User: Fold Site-specific recombinase XerD from Aquabacterium commune.
Amino acid sequence: MAKSLPKPFKYRGRWRAQVTLKSGSRPHADFDDHASACAWICQMLSNANTEHQAELGGPTQATLAQALNHYAALYSVNKGGVDSELNRINHYLAGAGLKLLRKTKNEKGQIALEHYEPKAQPQGWQEHNDIRRAKRSETYAAIAALARKRCSVINTADIRRLMGTMKAEGLSDSTIQKEIALLRHMFNVAAKEWQWKGFENPTEGLKLGTSQRRFVYITKEQEAALWEAIAECDNPYFWPLIACAMETTMRRGSLLAMRWDKTDLEGRIAQVPSKTGEINVPLSQHAVRVLSEMPRHPSGRVFPMTANAVEMAWDGVRVKAGVPELQFKDIRHLGATAYARRGLNAHQLKAILGHKTTFMAQVYVNLVAQDVLDAMDATAPVTPVTQVPPPAVGSAESIVQGRRAARLNDPVKKRPQDNDLSVTATPTGLLPREEAQSAQSAREDRPQTPQRAAGQQEQQQEQISAEPTWLGDNVVMLRPRTRAA
Assistant:
């Protein structure tokens, strides 16, 4: 028998609606008419019955691709690195045959996501993508297999196999870490916020590799070849883009988001969005000169280029310059290293890089071997801290034998006579002869007291019974003779 709904009742001339929830709370509301009170009761009970339902039907109903699509709409859209995260999520969506996601802006100018069907690409670009995907074919196949699985049947072994496949195809530990970090966070929020009761995160317990920090250094010849290749680009915005990337150490996304209405050339500062929020970037004199001489675009953007256009232009430049492994993000690294060589410290670099702490700013201060040698030479004292030993003649074994023979054959020195002593024993140590005589004269000039007389008599008695002991050249120590019993 179905449980009847609670009925409104009269209270102070109005209709009061009240319900009792499973939590024990009893919310209520007053209305002018009976129908409104009944509607409120139905709505409250309906919400109470559905408030604990799992998102997407729970892990037994949702596939990994569906869960990542839901995660992107709730969390990825609010992240500074939304573009790179959407790129990873789209691999799973494509593997499951779902529409892809891309970033857009709503009517309020806020960042939002929209689904889209990938369009046919030009033949040259499609061939380029096919070649790149062919190098990671097994990784994409493993991602597609995971994307179609229900989340409840995905286990730790599945994630470990994905990691092994990515490693076998040459992907770095840093790339693998980012992939697993995305899945780990998605599973964590699903268990905590999506009402996936009893769900266990399959990525828990996985030990990830340690990412290696990139050490970037190019020679002067390579740098000259790089700028020569940049000068040959047709796009008039690409050269200023690279120059500003080096001078400001901004990331590609921040550079492409620069606008003239937020760039103050006189005040030498630019307000740009970054991964950590909107920041004010100081502009060097060279950066101001570059920005002042470049053409203006009607859109108001400083660099009216797409991320894909920048990537393709950079690929051609680095190959032509003979540095195919130099990535665009390395320009930020090179710029920070150049500032460090000019004498900027970690706190100043922190302001330029837009970091909140000096820890990460220190990562960009890469000193090459010659820099370390120059620093050692600059800090070396005029006179050495330690003496240089005499040059060795012969082998170490022969030197040891020679020194030992010289020490053993050295004749025993004659014991010095009492009149040859140049030091005098005192209660506080040994004094040279001149200082001892001065101290003795000062003691004799002091007025005599009964206490002093007794002390001098006792001291003279000790000196008479003292036996000198030879310690070396003109150095002795006095010690009392042992009295006969």
Observations:
- The first helix runs from residue 34 to 50.
